[in-house]
Every structure is written in structure tokens, then in C-alpha cells.
Design a protein that fits this description.
With 577 residues, the chain is an alpha/beta fold. It has 22 helices and 19 strands. A ten-stranded mixed β-sheet has the order 5-8-7-6-11-1-12-18-2-19, sandwiched between helices. The chain has a three-stranded antiparallel β-sheet with strand order 14-16-15. It binds zinc ion. The active site is at 91 (phosphothreonine intermediate).
Length: 577
């Protein structure tokens, strides 16, 4: 980066703040934004999320990758120890953290769903009953989704607010909670896959109209073209770790090859296809091609400002839930995603220019192993018996435990909740001890105690992680953490704990603004939004994450002549060989 480029970058900070002030004044002229004239300010920022990409997969399976994942880990600034700090390591919480730089206690997306006392039922984190989504498939949408429950702005939101030239914001995923939480509150295009309804958009994001690009793309590329596809391993079977037929695996067919569904009869696609397709590498490949087409069609990164693209690849998660982290299926999804991301990066190089975009790669959470496999190894594991939990709590508090499928949160009837609130610390300790004697429950807290900061001073990482996940009015009356390798409900494999298999994920920044290397510093996916924002002079008022200044090619705001000399010790402190 030249000295002029660094001054240009520093100037962007002032311009960004100016834009904030200017946008508050009616009829004021927009702040002028210089044209892109150096690699200091990217023309496009890209966030790639690989759903359920566990940190150790890079070490265990990375030797199988040759394309896009290989390039990012080799050429980027790779934080080997990145991890979430909070307990509820779920998809909605993770994507909201990546998008906003905040933790659930701030952004409010505590989980994929929580119990809504006013409605008397669970609500999905993106559910919006005031609208109906727009379907691009053959069946009309019946439900609505938006970011009404996202309590903080995303990086993309702040780019819209602070940059002189409004960015085009484009996000896509198989899941609504990924596409919406990465975008925030408005976008040119946020789309996700809704089964037989095909790809859908939300009228809350860009208005009630149809997005012409998406209309054309899905018409020209129907997902049903994959209906007779067969998923076979792409490498020789001996290249995969562990066995194909693992104990406790579910999914569609235990072993390779996997046929998505029965062949169509009279042109009618079997409805099961829309479920299995999402659990296959063909969904990721489709998303990668659609992202490249969107970049071309909407000319992302080719205007006067900086555009925003986020893609969340979901197949690793759906496959990981069914086949577990030790499966050939998980390894093969990554081998194929490596190719999909390689193709997408090649398209970005061609369309935007290799030095004209900055990219972050990370994940929303990891995953725990299938409990039966851990039991077979003599390492314990299991599923918490919710009936026993209910029996313990109703014996202590009366009332009832409400019917909710929200993981480690426990919601009580009003009379039981009132009694819980009235317990003094000694009485609560007795209830807590009974709960912690239930098989698979490690720790339990009253949410009111967490929110009141009762555990803030204690040196208690588990309580701190639970506190970072708690949000008033959404969290349960009681929240618990399972023992390692235990799940709070029955499923082949899942996530949602503060253990390293759920919290540790890869984090990579790449582009000319970053110094390649392996960084062993403490880091988190909450650092993605503040770090990319820093490249643009965009500030995030509610971020809990840090700006990764250790990975920037040059310290921001300093001309080259002012840069402090980099000592050899300094380099060793921030990078490992
Ligand atoms: Zn996820």
C-alpha cells in the first residue's frame, strides 16, 4: 500500500463519520466519495460462511483440498484459534454475530428459535407474521421472514448508512436465518431456499417486487435439474478418514452412493427431493454458481462505491447433523465445497479483479460427535431426558415446564416462573443441584441471575459464556449446559454448547489489505464485521468483536513514513511459522 493509499484510507474514516452526520440532515448533499483508485479500499467485500465448519476440520481434512479453501487458508491471514465466546452456538446466533460483530446478549438472536410468551409458542428467529415471502418456485410462499428481531445493525446496514455511495447488498444461503442475519435490515437481494417453494425473498428487505435477476436465474436453472443426481465420493474411498457406515448415522441412505430421490413419475418430482437436495453437495454448487451470476448481473464491485456480498453454504450443516463429524459425507461435502469456492473466487478474480475485493471466511459454529460413537469408544455421551428435567422442576416449583423445542433453554408456566423468581440464593442452589444431577446436565442458571450480572465477577468461563447468550424476554427462565458429548434433544449430531467442538471455527481474511500467515492470537468470528468495516472507514457502534489490526498489511491511519518499525519479536508474537 502506498503512503497516498494509506492517507486515502484514513480519510475514509472521516468521510464515513461525515456521512453519518449528513444523513441526519434533510436535503443535505451527499458526501463525495472518491473513485476506487487503489487497493486500499476494496470495491467489494465478501463474507463466505461455511455452516458447521469445525475448526479442526482444517487439520484433519485440509489435505484433501486443492482449490478455493486451499487458496484462502494458504494465501490469507488464518486465525487458527478463532472461537465463539458464548454458549448458544447455533446458526442464527452465529450468522448474526458474523454480520453485526456483536454477541447474542447484544444482537438478541439467542438461537434459531425461542419461546414467545405472548404467542404461547416457539418462534423462529426470522419469523415475521406481518408479511408473506415472495416465492420464485412453483408453489406460493405461505410465511414471512425478516430481521425484525435483529436488535443491532449489521456491517452491511452501516455501509448503507455511512458510505457516500450506497452499496449493493447481496446475500444468499439455503437458510433464511443465514441470508437475513448477514444482510441486516435492507438489501438489493437476500434469498434462501424454502423447499418446494424454491428460492424466496422477503418484501421487508427490498420491497414487495420481484428481483429480475433472481427471476431469470431460477427460470434458467431449475434446482429440479438435480433430481436424478447421485452423490458419490469424489476421492478414492481410501482417502477418507474413519468408516463410511458409522454407528448412529441417519440421513438418506447410510452409505455411498446417495440417490436424492426416486426418478420422477409423469414429470412429477417426489417432494422428498427438496429435503435431500439441501443435504447434498449439489445445493452448495448451485449457490456458488448463483453467487457468481449475481456478481455479473448486478455488476457487484464495478461501481464507484463498495458493494457487499455474503454467501452461506449450508450443506455441511445438514449433512453434519445427519451423518456426524466423523463421516465420509462431511469430508466429501468439504472436498466439493473446496471446488465450488475455487470456482467462485476465479469468477470474482475475473469480474471484479483479484486485488479489488477483500474476503472473510468463517463459520457459525462447529458440531459434537454422534453420542453412540463416543459411547462405543468408552467416552460417554447421550441425550438429556427432558421428562426427568420436568419432573425435577415441577416437584420443586409446582406449575409446569412449557412445551418448547429450544435446546438448552427451559421455559416455565407463569406460576412456576414466579416461584423460581422468589427463591433466595440458598433455595435456588438446592433446585440447581437437583437439575445438575440429571444425567447429561453440567450446569444450570436462572436467566435473571445471568442478566443481573451475578456471575460477572466470578472466574467462571461457563457462566460467562451463558451470560453472553442471554437476552431478556427471549431466554428461558432457566438455561443449562450439557456435559461434553451430550445433546439436549434427540438427533444424530448437533451443536449449541460452549465446548471447543462447537465454539472453535476457522477464520480467514484475504485480499491485498491483509498479511498472509498463520495467526495464533485470540480471535472470534465477531471480528469479521469490525475488521472489514475498518477497511471502509465504517464504524460499528454495537460491536463486541475486535478489529484485526494485526492482520492488516499496514496499520490503518498511518502514512508509511510514520509506521513504527516492525521488530522480529513483534512478528513472532502475532504469527506462527
Ligand atoms: Zn449452522
Amino acid at each position: 500500500m502506498t503512503a497516498a493509499a494509506v492517507r486515502f484510507l484514513a480519510g475514509r474514516v472521516t468521510l464515513g463519520l461525515l456521512a453519518l452526520v449528513v444523513s441526519a440532515l434533510p436535503a443535505a448533499p451527499q458526501a463525495a466519495t472518491p473513485a476506487v483508485d487503489s487497493p486500499a479500499r476494496p470495491a467489494l467485500v465478501v463474507i463466505l460462511v461455511v455452516d458447521q465448519f469445525r475448526g479442526d476440520y482444517v487439520d484433519k481434512y485440509g489435505h484433501q483440498w486443492r482449490h478455493g479453501l486451499r487458496r484462502l487458508f494458504d494465501e490469507g491471514a488464518y486465525y487458527t484459534e478463532a472461537a465463539y465466546r458464548y454458549a448458544s452456538t447455533t446458526t442464527c446466533a452465529g450468522h448474526a454475530t458474523i454480520g453485526t460483530g456483536a454477541t447474542p446478549q447484544t444482537h438478541g438472536m439467542i438461537s434459531n428459535a425461542w419461546f414467545d410468551r405472548a404467542l404461547g409458542r416457539d418462534v423462529a428467529c426470522t419469523e415475521d407474521p406481518s408479511i408473506t415471502n415472495v416465492s420464485y418456485g412453483t408453489t406460493p410462499a405461505r410465511t414471512g421472514d425478516s430481521s425484525i428481531r435483529l436488535a443491532t445493525p449489521t456491517l452491511a446496514d452501516e455501509m448503507r448508512a455511512q458510505l457516500g455511495v450506497a452499496p449493493q447488498v447481496v446475500t444468499m444461503s439455503i437458510k433464511a436465518r443465514a441470508a437475513l442475519s448477514l444482510a441486516g435490515h435492507r438489501s438489493a437481494l437476500s434469498t434462501w431456499f424454502d423447499g418446494p417453494r424454491g428460492f424466496v425473498t422477503s418484501p421487508a428487505m427490498g420491497g414487495p417486487g420481484r428481483v429480475p435477476f433472481l427471476e431469470r436465474y431460477v427460470a434458467a436453472h431449475p434446482v429440479e435439474a438435480d433430481v436424478e443426481a447421485v452423490w458419490e465420493r469424489s476421492l478414492p474411498p481410501t482417502s477418507y478418514l474413519y468408516e463410511d457406515l458409522g454407528v448412529g448415522e441417519t440421513g438418506f441412505g447410510a452409505a455411498f452412493p446417495h440417490r436424492l430421490t426416486a426418478p420422477p413419475v409423469d414429470g412429477q418430482v417426489d417432494p422428498s427431493f427438496y429435503g435431500t437436495w439441501q443435504m447434498s453437495p449439489f445445493a452448495d454448487a448451485y449457490l456458488g454458481r448463483m453467487a457468481a451470476a449475481a456478481v455479473a448481473d448486478l455488476k457487484l464491485g464495478q461501481g464507484q462505491g463498495t458493494d457487499f456480498l455474503a454467501v452461506s453454504f449450508s450443506a455441511l450443516d445438514t449433512v453434519g447433523h445427519a451423518y456426524g463429524p466423523r463421516s465420509h459425507e462431511v469430508q466429501d461435502i468439504l472436498v466439493r465445497l473446496d471446488e465450488t469456492i475455487g470456482t467462485l473466487l476465479a469468477e470474482l478474480d475475473r469480474q471484479v479483479g483479484r486485488d479489488r475485493y477483500a474476503i472473510a471466511l468463517t463459520s457459525d459454529h462447529g458440531v459434537g460427535p454422534i453420542p453412540q460413537q463416543m459411547q462405543a469408544l468408552g467416552l460417554g455421551g447421550g441425550v438429556v431426558d427432558r421428562k426427568t428435567v420436568s419432573t425435577v422442576l415441577t416437584a420443586a416449583l409446582g406449575g409446569s415446564v412449557l412445551d418448547s423445542n429450544t435446546g438448552s433453554e427451559i421455559y416455565l408456566s407463569r406460576d412456576a416462573a414466579a416461584k423460581l423468581a422468589a427463591l433466595d440464593q440458598h433455595e435456588w442452589d438446592a433446585v440447581r443441584t437437583s437439575l445438575e444431577q440429571v444425567d447429561g446436565i453440567a450446569r444450570a442458571w436462572r436467566t435473571t441471575d445471568l442478566l443481573a450480572g451475578r456471575y460477572e465477577a466470578a472466574s467462571d468461563p461457563m457462566a460467562h459464556a451463558a451470560r453472553l447468550s442471554a437476552y431478556g424476554g427471549r431466554s428461558g427462565d432457566i438455561t443449562f449446559i450439557t456435559d461434553p458429548y451430550w445433546f439436549p434433544y434427540r438427533i444424530a449430531a448437533t451443536h449449541g454448547t460452549p465446548y471447543s467442538y462447537d465454539q472453535h471455527v476457522p477464520l480467514v481474511f484475504a485480499g491485498p489489505q491483509f498479511r498472509r500467515g498463520r495467526y495464533t492470537a485470540t480471535a472470534s468470528p465477531a471480528d469479521v464485521a469490525p475488521t472489514l468495516g475498518r477497511l471502509l472507514g465504517v464504524i460499528l457502534p454495537a460491536a463486541d468483536g475486535a478489529t484485526r489490526v494485526d492482520a492488516l498489511s499496514r496499520p490503518p491511519g498511518l502514512a508509511a513514513a510514520d509506521e513504527p518499525p516492525q521488530t522480529q519479536e513483534g512478528r513472532q508474537a502475532s504469527t506462527s511459522p
